[in-house]
């Protein structure tokens, strides 16, 4: 099987490596995504402290349901993230091969990351909507096919693509910014001449730093996306969603859930890239 993998095209190898890294990071960080979603849409929770924060929401979920409830929505998350990360990395590999320069410039990194993420988002947006609804706790879909069918039957085709614009506004800049900083930080590490055995750990730190910057800058778009995907009838347009959020919670409302989201996106991106590069070496991609 290993030899068969070695014979695959570089783009397919990138897809396989991306799927592996996406699966591992999704399994590990799903609870942070669920907590973030519930904070943003303000799901009624009997938090012992009376405050709606990351720890109090997680405790309330465990107390009212169970520990495994923190992984609610895992199946649609895996169905979206595993192929999504695979598509993202294979697109990056394909696009990088089209640039002839040996040293990737900052603008090239932004464009490559943005285009790759656009392809992944548009391809898998229905699964993103379903994942968000599972995590909210407001919907009780029995399976992925039934969930998709129910959305289509009750809300129409529009529901399956609800929140695509804010998702693109969130994910495309995130990926562009992330890849630009990650490439720059990684280049700095390589130029310092560190022991190669330390490179995975150092690259992980590069990923954490790049992810933190990108996550904070794109947080408002994530809040808008969550509201549009959990109630596609109430929030049909970005402008009206922004206005409603501002009137209800002020500027603070656009940064609800920033702690769990920043932790998840930062750790997930750093781990995905570290695992991707490790698997890439194993399959002969690098």
UniProtKB/TrEMBL annotation:
Describe where the Solcar repeats fall, as residue ranges on this chain: 9-98, 104-188, 198-282
Keyword list (alphabetical) reads: Membrane, Repeat, Transmembrane, Transport
Membrane topology category: Multi-pass membrane protein
The record's SUPFAM superfamilies line, in alphabetical order, gives: Mitochondrial carrier
Q: Where in the cell is it found?
A: Membrane
MF annotations from Gene Ontology: glycine transmembrane transporter activity
One Gene Ontology term of the biological-process aspect is: glycine import into mitochondrion
Question: Its GO CC terms?
Answer: membrane; mitochondrion
Q: Which InterPro entries match?
A: MCP, MCP_dom_sf, MCP_transmembrane
Write down the Gene3D superfamilies for this protein, in alphabetical order. Answer: Mitochondrial carrier domain
Protein family = Belongs to the mitochondrial carrier (TC 2.A.29) family.
Name of the molecule in the record: Solute carrier family 25 member 38-like
Species annotation: Crassostrea virginica
Upper classification of the source organism reads:
Eukaryota, Metazoa, Spiralia, Lophotrochozoa, Mollusca
